[in-house]
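job 3f2a | input accepted
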Amino acid sequence: MLTPFSPATPYPSQRSATYARHGMVAASQPQASQIGRDMLARGGNAVDAAIATAAALTVVEPTGCGIGGDAFALVWIADDDQGKGRLHGLNASGQAPQALTREAVMAAGHAEMPLHGWTPVTVPGTPAAWAELSRRFGKLDFATLLEPAIRLARDGFPVSPVIASLWQRAESTFRSHLTDPATAAWFDTFTPAGRAPRAGEWHRCEDQARTLEAIAATRAESFYRGELAERIDAFSRDTGGYLRDEDLAAYAPEWVTPIAARYRGVDVWEIPPNGQGLVALMALRILEGFDPVGRDDPATLHRQLEAMKLAFVDGQTHITEPAHMTHDVAELLSDAYTRERRALIGEHALDPRPGRPQAGGTVYLATADDAGNMVSFIQSNYHGFGSGVVIPGTGIAMQNRGHNFSLDPGHDNVLAPGKKTFHTIIPGFLTRDDGMPLGPFGVMGGFMQPQGHVQVVTNLVDFGLNPQAALDAPRWQWMGGRRIGVEHHFPAHLVRAMAERGHDMRVEHDSRGFGRGQMIIRDPDTGIYCGGTEPRTDASIAVQ
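job 3f2a | predicted structure (544 res):
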C-alpha cells in the first residue's frame, strides 16, 4: 500500500525525506534545484520552475543533457484547491533528417548505427520543449526563465564531484574515438584548459551563454528557423552531416495522451511510444498477477527480474513511432497477452535473448507548486555528451539518439527519413485509482530507466517506502540474457538465491550505472509534498 507519509519505513533510508507545502523542486544539481525554487518564489508555477531548472542543467550537467538534446514531460495541471485536474504529455523527441536513409548509412560502411559523429544525430527537441511548455502553461516571461542558466554559463560555476567524474570519463573516451572534423569543437568547448574540469574547478562557457540568450529572445525560433538553425545547417554541410535547415524548420513538439497501467490501486503513467515507458507498464502488469510477498523474499526479486526481461523483449522488438508499430499499446497491455507472458515465469531464469541494454546520459527533474501543479520532466543527449558533434561557437552539443535505430529492414524500428526512433527517456507520474494526483517520478540512465521505474513503484506501493527510501534502496539491473547486475550493498542472501535460480549475478561496485532519480509525492488529503532525491549523484531538493 502506498504510504509515503508514514514516519517509519521498512528500509533504512540514507537521507530523510523532505516535506513542504508551497512548492518543491528535485533535481540532480543543487544550483539547478535552487533556480527552480527561485522561480516559484517569483510567482512562477511548477512549469516555470521545471523550464528554468532544465535550462540550468544543460550548463551545470552537460554530461547528461544539452541544448542539442531531446525532452519529454508529464504535466499535471490542477483545476481546484484539492488538486484535481488533468495530466498532459509532451513528446519533444526529434525525427531523423530527410537525408538520413538506411541505404546512405550502409553505403558509408556501417553495419549498425554508429554512436558518434553526425550519423546518429536527429532533430533536437529540447529548446522547443521549453518554449512550448512556457507557451501553454507558464506564468513568467520565457526570457526570465533562462536568465539564471545564461548567468551560470557566462559567469561560471564550480563543477560537482559526480559530474567531474563523468566529464573525465567522457574525455578519455572521446580522445580515442573522436577524430572527425565534426567533433573537433567538443574539445574546445568542454576541455578549454586542455582537460576535463576537476571537482570544484570553475567552468564557464560564453558560447553557450550567447546561444541561450538567442533562444530566450526568440522563444527558441532561432534554433529552428533563425540564425542558430543556419549555423547548424552550414556546419552539417561542411562536415558531412545529414541534418539540414529544412529538418529543423519542420520540427514541432507533440502533445500526446499519456498511457497508464493500474498497479494495486495506483495508476502509473508514462509517455506513449516512441518512448520506452511502455516497457515499465508491461512489467508492472505482469507483476500485478502475483500476490505480493516480502521485499527480502527471493520470490519477489526473481519475479521482478523475469517480468522485466519479458517486457524488454517486447519493447525492443515493437516500440518505435506508433505509425510503424506492428502491435499497438492496447495489444501489448491487454489482459490476455499479459497472462500469456506471466505464465512463462517459473522457478528458474529465462533467457529471452533481446538486444543488450546499456547505460546512457540523461537528467530528470520533478517540480510542484502551491496550487497542486506538478511536472515530471526529462531531457537527454542520450549517451553522455551525445554524438561528440558540437556546433562551433555555440556550445550546442548534438545528441546521438539515432543510435537506437535498427538497420534491419524487417524491424519495426528500422531507420527511415522523418521517423522518430525508439526512445529511452521516460518521465513517470502516479495517480490514485480515484483520479487524484500523487506526483512525478523518474529514474534517468538509458535502458535502466524502465527498470528503475518498476523498482521505485514497487518500493512505494508494495513495501510502503517513502520517496527517499524508495530511491535509496539498492537496485538491480538486467544487462541482457541471464546477466543481472546489482549494487555492492545489495542483500547477499538475495544474490545467492538468484544465482541458485540460474541468474548470472554480477556485483557492481560503481553505482552510477544504476540510474539517478527524483520523486515528489503529494498527499491528496493535506496537499503536503514529500520528496526524495538521488543519493547516487550530486542531487538536492529545494522547497518553497
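job 3f2a | DSSP finds 18 helices and 21 strands in the chain.
job 3f2a | closed
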